[in-house]
Amino acid sequence: MKNSPLYKGSLTTIIMKLLEENERMYGYEITQKVKLITQGELNITEGALYPALHKLEGEGLLEAEVEKVDNRLRKYYKLTENGQKETVNRLAELEDFIRNMQTLVNAKTNPDLQF
Amino acid sequence: MKLTKENITFIDNYLKNSGVSYIDVRYEMTDHVATAIEEKEGDFLENFRVYMARNKKYIMQSNRQFAKAARKRALWLLLQNMIKPHSLVFMVALFLVLYITVTTFGVNTIKDVLGIIYSLLLVCLLLFYKFSIGYHKSKFSVLDKLISTLLIITYVVFVFLRPNKLIDNPMLITIYYAAFTFFITINVYTFYVLSKKYKLQYNYE
Q1: List of chain A residues whose C-beta atoms are within 8 Å of the C-beta of residue B36
Q2: How many angstroms separate the CA of residue B20 from the nearest CA in chain A?
Q3: Is A111 on the interface with B (CB under 8 A)?
Q4: Which of A22, A98, B139, B192 could make an SS bond with B144 (beta carbons 3.0 to 4.6 A apart)?
Q5: Is the reported ipTM for this assembly greater than 0.90?
Q6: For the segment B20-57, what is each residue's pLDDT rounded down to a tens digit?
Q7: What is the 3-state secondary structure (H, E, C) of chain B?
Q8: What is the value of pTM for the model shown?
């Protein structure tokens, strides 16, 4: 992933957001969707994506179904009921984070706030 | 370009020989690699070579993370099954039965009998794993970590520490045997439930 320390913490939220909008997706599809939306700016590697997917699956936020597609087995992920609720929480948390970071980054020095 | 069955087998074998030993991990990685190559035109082997040159390290990184996560997942599933109400009731019932047995037949008889039962249970579990879910053909990550965790703990407690040789107090020996039997039973149960889930999910024969 580009700028991995900055994106790392939001990867699970990004995955959950995509799955909220699409009924189910498989790993490669998720990487391509992110690449498309960010116009190539964000490339999620296999080393980052699959651990995140399995972590979410282990937490009960995603469930998987396996289907035979074109001579191989494909694992699709979708949000569970808990996952759908948690997505709302995590998106709200991420929006707060972005707003606060924007405030910090754009803050001009205010003499009244100096210690 | 659409990949043939032979192309898919090639990818699968390559990943297996590169150390992706768990079949559930390999299915997913094979699909990922195959889908990426299908988007290219040209020779399959050349596209495969180019893809691996760029991405093999990420695949191996993912494989290592898988193995760590699989052990955590196995332990978490075990813990979840241990704290279920019916499991706790079983634990209490087990303790009572063992206590009555120890006080009736004596500690030494129970030690010998339980030793044989544990050995048989572990052998049955290993044989079930080998011939049922297909260890001889392939290993599933969380199942494998569950079995290896059980074997490690059993070895350390039963063979290495051997509390049964150190404890003579009937109450303490009952608690030890109740806890150990409970642990093995919940492992067997978790293994069975997980095997069914894998078989269903992967339509495994």
Answers
A1: 28
A2: 13
A3: no
A4: B139
A5: no
A6: 988 889 999 999 999 999 999 999 999 999 999 999 99
A7: CCCCHHHHHHHHHHHHHCCCCEHHHHHHHHHHHHHHHHCCCCCHHHHHHHHHHHHHHHHHHHHHHHHHHHHHHHHHHHHHHHCCHHHHHHHHHHHHHHHHHHHHHCHHHHHHHHHHHHHHHHHHHHHHHHHHHCCCCCECHHHHHHHHHHHHHHHHHHHHHCHHHHCCCHHHHHHHHHHHHHHHHHHHHHHHHHHHHHHHHCCCC
A8: 0.82
d(CA A69, CA A71): 6
List the structure tokens of B101.
Answer: 């047995």
Distances (CA, A) of B86 to A8, A115, B22: 40, 60, 32
Q: Is B29 on the interface with A (CB under 8 A)?
A: yes
Q: Which two tokens stand for residue A53?
A: 């997917």
Residue from B24, B35, B139 nearest A53 by CA: B24
A72 part of contact set with chain B, CB < 8 Å: yes
Chain A residues within an 8 Å CB radius of B202: 66, 73
